[in-house]
TrEMBL record:
This is Penicillin-binding protein 1B. Pathway: Cell wall biogenesis; peptidoglycan biosynthesis; Glycan biosynthesis. The active site is at residues 199, 475. In the N-terminal section; belongs to the glycosyltransferase 51 family. In the C-terminal section; belongs to the transpeptidase family. Pfam families: Transgly, Transpeptidase, UB2H. It is found in: Cell inner membrane. GO terms for molecular function: penicillin binding; peptidoglycan glycosyltransferase activity; serine-type D-Ala-D-Ala carboxypeptidase activity. Coiled coil: none annotated. It comes from Shewanella septentrionalis. The chain crosses the membrane at residues 34-52. Residues 79-163 form the Bifunctional transglycosylase second domain. Residues 1-20 are annotated as: Disordered.
């Protein structure tokens, strides 16, 4: 029995080796237990974190991916038989829009030209009235402007044909990012091919992350001792750009990879590619970050992406690697070398022939002139646009994404106005320091503001003198005094004698006031037309007193003067404070056959879905009867031909122009307002401190207008017969209406209602008339 006990004891006794083995197995069991629990916990964390990331990604991709800045467009030039658009103006417009001049247009964006015709292959574009398809037309011109627009395909003459508007700028309201969204189907295929060759060749094979590319990049970088190659896929780059910062850390890379896998799982490759093409950072335009290929095309080349050459497309793909490092204006040799590398990859892949490759690498970079901004600096005009959008559509509109605002701005008129202001003020400043300027140009036919300059440095964003100044307008008020007197059923005609004798009146302060003519002389009496074209003060005051100061104030108010008027006699000589915009408003009425329409800067607004936003129409009414307005326009043409603006008429002989000079007391303010068949302009030149300038209307403001017309050749005013106006004949001395065969008469337009010529000439009978008993 003892033996049995001993044997049992012997068999249960453990050796050191067995104890170590048991301890090892227990340790591994414990490690395994902890490991799978940690792994399970980690998996849970990753799962929940992935769900969290998935929600963030879904919200971004399925909602509004980007806030697209409001796009602001110029007017769309309308061409139709009789349109006041000259051949040179049309050529300049096409150059501004980036059309290419060729011998024979073969594709969209090209045109050819002879001396009287232009053949154009117009681009498709979004018009406020709907999508406009590409179209090839022949535009013919004569001395009056456009004579016909014919569609090349079927020789059909078009009633109206629109050019696409110029994209002036985008209103950035958010994070400073700027982009133009372009769908993938509108991207050139070569850009997509080059992008995949350079950045992610296995894009359609991997699932968001490419382990082989990461390993290859790591090996290359370790071998080089620095980072020379990246292993990120396009999807990873998109995840970083969309959701992450540029911080370099392992945690950020892990998060980037995880998001890339989720993005690839949730969305198609085409959706990912479209997002990348519109998100990728492409450069810096001062304070604006340029994102996406669409905007980059405009930024670097000033053209839509659909019209880029293969070399230009390769340039954009090359820039992705480092927009600052490959800045073409600073380092042209760097970007050209990389562009050529992209082109070689396209050739090696069979996407370019050898001949195409050679032609592309030999082509210049052809980037836009850096001195010409990628977007126009129009601080004065844009301030008015924003104010009008706020008044008509509400202050929340500009915060919406994808809004398109169509304006009245004429880019050619704006360019001419800026050049005129810059050149003229530089010349005037030589003898008269501290001068400033405000200028407004309107479209005679639409009542839209075509151009605006608020400072002698047009791009300066500050005090807008075109809108904000209030200065005495001087003789610019006189046409409205005469329009009041020449109203239908009035006793006055253009030939009516007006007293030009000393007169004393009481002014608004109760003090006596004795107005003087400019030359301090009196002529006894002068015809009404002479008083206006020579801008004579005393006859104008006498006329204004006769018709009533209140009646003149009413005419001015009905013509669009929005601010209160002090109805004192001094008002008749321009003791009325106004701005160039206010003057342009009332002169627009004179130019538009007496029709008042409130000036506007915005013609239409489309939302992100291309739907026009409803808005109340602006008021329109007949402020001055058309027949009276005809007489005033005639008189203002005489101001240019033989009056105070003769220098303007001499500069453009044979061209019908209408205008009026104005000068305030002590030559503190120089004014001019005038118009041709296309535009109305109102200009002020003076000093911000209201100091004396020694300038008159003809030597200051009119000089700006003259320079404007030299940059933008005027179109002669058309003589159109107006009902209620006849050709009258008036005695030069008495102003009495007579027959056409009488002697000592002047032929002048007259109102039918008031023109009553005498039956005979009122002259002594000749001997033969006495014999015949006449």
């Amino acid at each position: 029995m003892n033996d049995e006990v001993d044997m049992t004891t012997k068999t249960t006794k453990k050796t050191p080796a067995s104890r170590r083995a048991n301890n090892g197995r227990g340790f591994f069991r414990r490690v395994w237990s902890i490991t799978w629990k940690l792994a399970l916990a980690g998996l849970a964390v990753v799962t929940f974190y992935s769900i969290y990331l998935d929600q963030i990604i879904a919200q971004k991709f399925e909602g509004q991916k980007w806030h697209l800045p409001a796009q602001v467009f110029s007017r769309s030039m309308a061409l139709y038989p009789g349109a006041a658009v000259s051949h040179p103006q049309m050529m300049a417009e096409l150059k501004l829009l980036g059309y290419r001049k060729v011998a024979n247009p073969r594709q969209v964006g090209e045109f050819s030209a002879s001396s009287t015709r232009i053949e154009l292959w117009r681009r498709p574009f979004l018009h406020p009235e709907g999508d406009q398809v590409e179209q090839r037309v022949m535009i013919s011109f004569d001395s009056n402007g456009v004579s016909s627009v014919t569609r090349v395909s079927d020789k059909r003459q078009l009633a109206v044909f629109h050019l696409e508007p110029v994209l002036l700028d985008r209103i950035i309201t958010g994070d400073g990012e700027d982009r133009l969204f372009v769908p993938t189907e509108e991207m050139p295929k070569s850009i997509v091919q080059a992008l995949l060759l350079v950045e992610d060749r296995s894009f359609y094979e991997h699932h968001g992350v490419n382990p082989f590319a990461i390993a290859r990049a790591a090996f290359v970088n370790i071998s080089a001792g620095r980072t020379v190659q990246g292993g990120s896929t396009l999807t990873q780059q998109l995840a970083k750009n969309f959701f992450l910062s540029s911080e370099r850390s392992l945690l950020r890379k892990v998060r980037e990879a995880l998001m890339a896998v989720i993005i690839d799982f949730r969305y198609s490759k085409d959706e990912i590619l479209e997002a990348y093409l519109n998100e990728v950072y492409m450069g810096q335009d001062k304070s604006r970050a340029v994102h996406g290929m669409g905007l980059a095309s405009r930024f670097y080349f000033g053209r839509p992406i659909s019209e880029l050459t293969i070399a230009q497309q390769a340039f954009l793909v090359a820039t992705i690697k480092g927009p600052s490092y490959y800045n073409p204006w600073r380092y042209p040799e760097r970007i050209q070398e990389r562009r050529d590398l992209v082109l070689r990859l396209l050739m090696d892949a069979g996407d370019l022939t050898t001949a195409e490759y050679k032609a592309a690498v030999e082509s210049p970079l052809a980037i836009r002139n850096l001195n010409k901004p990628a977007h126009q600096k129009l601080p004065s005009f844009f301030a008015l646009v924003k104010q009008e959008v706020n008044d008509r559509y509400g202050d929340a509109l500009l915060k919406q994404s994808g809004v398109k605002i169509y304006t009245t701005l004429d880019p050619m008129a704006q360019e001419a106005a800026e050049k005129a202001v810059t050149q003229t003020l530089k010349s005037l400043d030589k003898s008269n320091k501290s001068l400033q300027v405000g200028m407004v140009v309107t479209d005679k036919y639409t009542g839209g503001i075509a151009a605006m300059v608020g400072d002698k440095t047009p791009g300066f964003d500050g005090f807008n003198r075109a809108v904000e100044i209030r200065r005495p307008i001087g003789s610019l008020i006189k046409p409205f005094v005469y329009a009041t007197a020449l109203a239908p059923n009035s006793q006055f005609t253009l030939a009516t004698p007006l007293k030009d004798q000393p007169i004393t009146l009481k002014n608004e302060q109760g003090k006596t006031w004795s107005p003087q003519n400019f030359d301090k002389k009196f002529s006894g009496q002068v015809p009404l037309l002479t008083a206006l074209k020579k801008s004579m003060n005393v006859p104008t005051v006498n006329l204004g007193i006769a018709v009533g100061v209140d009646a003149v104030a009413t005419t001015l108010a009905k013509s669009g003067w929005q601010e209160p008027l002090n109805e004192y006699p001094s008002m008749l000589l321009g003791a009325v404070n106004g701005s160039p915009l206010m003057v342009a408003q009332v002169y627009q009425t004179l130019a538009d056959s007496g029709v008042y329409r409130k000036l506007t800067t915005v013609t239409a607004v489309l939302d992100a879905d291309k739907n026009p936003l409803p808005v109340t129409r602006l008021p329109k009414e007949q402020a001055i009867s058309p027949d009276t307005d005809f007489l005033i326009q005639y008189a203002m043409q005489q101001v240019v031909n033989t009056g105070t603006a003769t220098r303007l008429g001499n500069a453009f002989p044979g061209v019908g122009l209408a205008g009026k000079t104005g000068t305030s007391n002590d030559s503190r303010d120089s004014w001019f307002a005038g118009f041709d068949e296309r535009n109305v302009a109102a200009i002020w030149v003076g000093r911000d401190d209201n100091g004396k300038t020694s300038l008159y209307g003809s030597s200051g403001a009119m000089a700006v207008y003259l320079a404007f017309l030299k940059e933008r050749p005027p179109i002669s005013l058309r003589s159109i017969q107006v009902n209620g106006v006849v050709k009258g004949f008036f005695d030069r001395d008495t102003g009495v209406a007579k027959e056409s065969d009488c002697s000592n008469v002047d032929a002048l337009p007259a109102l039918t209602a008031t023109y009553r010529p005498v039956n005979n000439c009122g002259e002594p009978l000749q001997w033969w008339q006495k014999i015949l008993g006449q």
